[in-house]
Write a structure and sequence with these properties.
Blueprint (H helix, E strand, L loop, with lengths): L2 E5 L4 H13 L4 E4 L5 H5 L7 E4 L2 E5 L4 H9 L3
């Protein structure tokens, strides 16, 4: 499973999402979309964070932990 968190500088919600992934023991990559704008062309988010799982934009903003677990472990 490949998880990417699309972030922006000083994004407090991004920290919340990163902490959720850390608590779940899920490895992820953070991508600052201001440094890599090509990600915005592929995943047109207007609010950070964007959560991409296996190259599919699954969430914009902060999901609940329950929603995140369901998407990570029951969507395969």
């Amino acid at each position: 499973m490949k998880v990417e968190i699309l972030t922006t500088p000083a994004c407090s919600n991004c920290n919340i999402v990163e902490k959720m992934f850390d608590e779940l023991g899920v490895l992820y990559t953070t991508i600052d979309v201001t440094e890599k704008p090509e990600y915005l062309q592929k995943y047109p988010i207007f609010t950070a964070p964007g959560i991409v799982i296996d190259d599919k934009l699954e969430f914009i903003g902060v999901p609940t932990k329950k929603e995140l677990i369901k998407k990570l472990y029951h969507n395969n």
